[in-house]
Amino acid sequence: MNLSAPDFGHEVRFGMDTIANMGVFRVRKMDRVNVSTRREDGQEPRFESHERTYEPRVSPSSANSNKAIAAVPRWVDDRLTLAKGGKTFLNKIFPDHWSFMLGEISLYSFIILLATGVYLTFFFVPSGHMVLYHGPYKPLWGQHVSEAYMSTVNLSLDTRFGLLMRQMHHWAADIFIAAAVVHMCRVFFTGAFRRPREINWMIGLTLMLLAIVNGFLGYSIPDDLVSGTGLRIAFSIFESIPIVGNWLGYAVFGGPYPGNGDVIFRFYIAHVLILPLLILGLIGAHMGMMVYQKHTQFPGPGRTNKNVVGAPMFPTFMAKTTGYFFVIVGVIALMGALFQINPIWLYGQYIPYKVSYAVQPDWYMGWLDGALRIMPSWELHLPGHMIPNVFFPAVLFPGLTFNILYAWPFIERKFSKAPDIEHHLLDRPRDNPKRTGLGVGVLTFYFMLFGASSTDVLANMFHVSLNTVLWFFRFAVFIVPVIVGFAAFQLAHEMKEGPQDLGKRKRHNIVVRSAQGGYSTIPVEGRPGDGHGEPEPEVLNPEVLHPEVLHPEVLGEPLHADLPL
Amino acid sequence: MSDPRYADRTSRPKTVERTIAVCFTVSLLSTVGFAATYWQTGPDMLLGVFFAMIFLGMGVGVIAWGKYLMPQGPFVEERHPLTTTEEDKQEFAEAFGRGADSIKRRKLLGKLFVAVNGVFAIALIIPLRSLLGAKTPGSELYHTNFGKGTRLVTVNGEPVTLAALDVGGAQTVFPEGYVGSATGQTILIRPQTTPLVTKPGRETWSPAGYLAFSKVCTHAGCPVGLYLQEFKELLCPCHQSVFDVSTGATQVFGPAPRPLPQLPLAVNSQGYLVSQHDYDEPIGPGFWSRGALWNGHNS
Fold first, then answer.
1. Are the beta carbons of A327 and B291 separated by less than 8 Å?
2. Is residue A162 part of a domain?
3. Cα B269 from chain centre
4. Is residue A152 included in any domain, yes or no?
5. Looking at chain A, which residue has its C-alpha nearest residue B241?
6. Which CATH number characterizes residue A173's domain?
7. For chain A, which terminus, N or C, has the lower number of CB atoms within 10 Å?
8. Inter-chain CB proximity B49 and A337 less than 8 Å
9. Whole-angstrom distance, CA of residue A99 vs CA of residue A106
């Protein structure tokens, strides 16, 4: 044992008085070394090797309660013979990584959307019929508004709990799609879309497409000035499609728009029934496939392309994910309570000749709005026919975007030199610098388009002319992604070639003071979840999960419930 | 001593358990607060905060429970191979072949069956025409309700006289009888008091300096709602297309591909502003057959 003071290469800070009193410190060696002042019980490491034997310690009371609990699955199995599948499901192993939670955010936001949405249907009147407003919001008195608009104002301002539900619904929609996009980025940059998961990648993309469309439909049906203008633009986009454009636009909107109220009811039924059903079904397929093919995992000790390493479905993953669901509901509820969103009573009823200034669509339409704005003023004239300007940024461009995304797993497969095998181990972004560089570049492109959807706001904010801002974006949209993409490629490339443990979490050390006053460090025993020195993964033994076979010094004695429950 | 894979991930399980208990208690109290706030008609924001706290308390508590007081592993599970045996594949193919053979033997029936389904699929498209509603795409794409001598009226339906606007003023007008019309919406501007010839051939279109342009943007159909008096420009707030009024609302900036159509104005015998005839081109954004000659007529 080295008795001189260890050289951490870092500054070690702790007070002299604590050193004098304590023999053992747990030191986490990171950029800064934090010294925990918690004293360990002697010099014993906290965990013994799993090879030690342990003796079941069964107390009569816990055995009894366990019997009662065990009767439930037995009762179910006697009727539905679920034991085999149920056992597999409960013991299913889930790999753990923060990035695997992104899809969960999306899923849980969707559940919130369903719940809040159902509540809203009790109050919303999906009708374009115009009435004279004399409801509780006095500034609108005497104005002609549609029943859709009036009911939305009333459920916001005159129904207790209504505004919270509506704002939660809107925030949840924004978060639903945001989480889906980030989740998709995670899948892309880690190569999780590769064989055998190409189909699930495509299902995921379809979900995103449906989510974006349903988001647009949802914020369009209150028939307010901002969303009505958005619908007018959408109608123009339909009209711009060659040959069938007008007919398609009329068929979708129920006639020319603006000029008919049918569109509210049509979009309502699509928004609350047709698209949610499709989304729900595809989410089922998305997750069913994930369960069947099992989750991917990052490389690590004991992790191979043929296994899954992690925590069991029940109770660990179940508890974490249920708690996570509650937290997401809580955060969205907090946003709904504190952050105003889409206050349509301030915008007013949609009237075709009125328009508001500095309005943007919801964030997920921003890239399309940006593309519409920076498109040069061209259109294609053919003898007797034409292809309008908006066709290129609003039909062709998103069409290309999604088609390339759908085809991406196959495109990459074609250009990849790696063998065509199943991939269950994820790439880190650095492992594939070309994919990472390309992905970052393309993402930057869409970010820049998103920025371009605020040309007017940016011009006002920075006191520059609209012309300057527009011309900046017309070029920057193409130049910036090349620069950023190349930088990402270079960074990934250098990290790949660099030291192996670059960026990894450092391991804890125990600082020991000897009787002579020297110091030395001993790396701590691995802990579960601690990427480096965790114990060897082992096959789950469900028997051991029973509390009675675990020792209280590990589990801790439960607190006694004194609550009169 | 026990296996760390099954052990709590904390050295102070009691502290963790107490913390979780506090979280659940917060949740419980928030539920009471929520109900009380609703009952007592308290502020909506408080109602929402209590509602959030119910879930946040439960959520944080349950996550901590799962993270610190439940086995974390790592456990390992083998993946089942995503393939089937050669035997299964063969039997699957045989089963399919057996059925397919008995179908293929009756060639006429098979072809007829395919034909029935194909025709039915096409026939299904026809009723979709009902979705078009009362109107099929037609004259409203090419014409507005402005005709010869149609009076211009304000949003209140009042006819517009030569005294309607001061120099620099702008106003939304409609063809008489069609106030609020989506296609007939027109922006009336008066940059000067003398006739302003925007393009050759439009010498008589601007009595007393009044100019009228379609308010529907040629880009994506938004109302071109902003008149920049200083520059004599019209700006569309949706995608920032700018039109120069004095040259006939030609597009000078942004994505709009065409000028705003100009409405030829005149003054009738009673002194009201009227249109000489309809716009001489379809208003608004482009569509496939925009260039086609429209044979229908408009009264």
1. no
2. yes
3. 44
4. yes
5. A373
6. 1.20.810.10
7. C
8. yes
9. 12
Which one, of A38, A30, A31, A36, lies nearest residue A14 by Cα? A36
**Does A537 contact B75 at a Cβ distance shorter than 8 Å?**
yes
Q: Using CB atoms, which residue from A54, A386, A390 is nearest to B291?
A: A386
pLDDT (0 to 100) of residue A559: 62
pLDDT, tens digit (0-9, with 9 covering 90-100), for A538-553: 787 666 555 555 555 5
Query: How are beta strands A519-523 and B250-253 bridged, if at all?
Result: unpaired
Quick one: average pLDDT of B94-110? 91
- Looking at A428-549, list the stretches that DSSP marks H as alpha helix, in order from N- to C-terminal side: 433-452, 455-462, 466-497
Nearest-CB residue to A307 (from B63, B76, B287):
B76
- In chain B, residues with a C-beta closer than 8 Å to the C-beta of A331 are 52, 56
pLDDT above 70: percentage of residues in chain B: 97
ipTM above 0.90, yes or no: yes
| Confidence at residue B140, expressed as pLDDT on a 0 to 100 scale | 85
* Residues A366-390 as b or e (16 or more Cβ within 10 Å = b): bbbbbbbbbbebebeeeeebbbbbb
The residue ranges of chain A whose pLDDT is under 50 are: 1-63, 531-532, 563-565
Q: Is A414 on the interface with B (CB under 8 A)?
A: no
* CB-CB neighbours of A424 under 10 Å: 24
CA distance A264 to chain B (A): 14
Cβ neighbourhood burial of B288 (10 Å; 0-12, 13-18, 19+): buried
Could you report the per-residue pLDDT of A442-496, keeping only the tens digit for each? 999 999 999 999 999 999 999 999 999 999 999 999 999 999 999 999 999 998 8
Give the per-residue pLDDT at A293.
Answer: 92
The nearest alpha carbon in chain B to A456 belongs to B240
Q: How far apart are CA A334 and CA A328, in angstroms?
A: 10
pLDDT of B278 above 60:
yes
pLDDT of A557 reads: 60
Strands (E), B122-198: 152-153, 169-175, 186-190
> CB A385 to CB B292 under 8 A?
yes
**The predicted structure's pLDDT at residue A64:** 52
Residue of B nearest to A291 (CA): B79
Note whether A554 contacts B8, CB cutoff 8 Å: yes
Contact (CB, 8 A) for A129 and A147: yes
pLDDT mean over B102-112: 91
What SS3 class is residue B273? Answer: strand
Size of interface A-B (CB pairs under 8 A): 373
* Confidence band of B225 (pLDDT split at 50, 70, 90): confident
> Do B4 and A50 make contact, defined as CB atoms within 8 angstroms?
yes
Among A266, A316, A360, A563, most B C-beta atoms within 10 A, so best to mutate, is A316
Across B244-261, average pLDDT: 94
The answer to whether B74 contacts A534, with C-beta atoms less than 8 Å apart, is: yes
Q: Which domain holds residue A109?
A: 98-298+310-354
Does A330 sit within 8 Å of B288, measured CB to CB?
Answer: no
Q: Counting runs of H as helices and runs of E as strands, what totals does chain A give?
A: 20, 11
Chain A residues closer than 8 Å to B145 by CB? none
Inter-chain CB proximity B62 and A319 less than 8 Å: yes
The answer to whether position A198 is within a domain reads yes
| pLDDT at residue A552 in the model | 52
- Nearest residue of chain B to residue A41 (CA atoms): B11
In sequence order, the β-bridge partners of residue B190 are B169
A402-426, pLDDT tens digit by residue? 999 999 999 999 998 888 899 999 9
Q: Which residues of B touch A358 (CB under 8 A)?
A: 237
Residues A338, B51: C-beta atoms closer than 8 Å: no
% residues pLDDT > 90 (chain A): 63
Query: In chain A, how many domains are there?
Result: 1
Confidence (pLDDT) at A54:
42
Res B137: pLDDT = 86
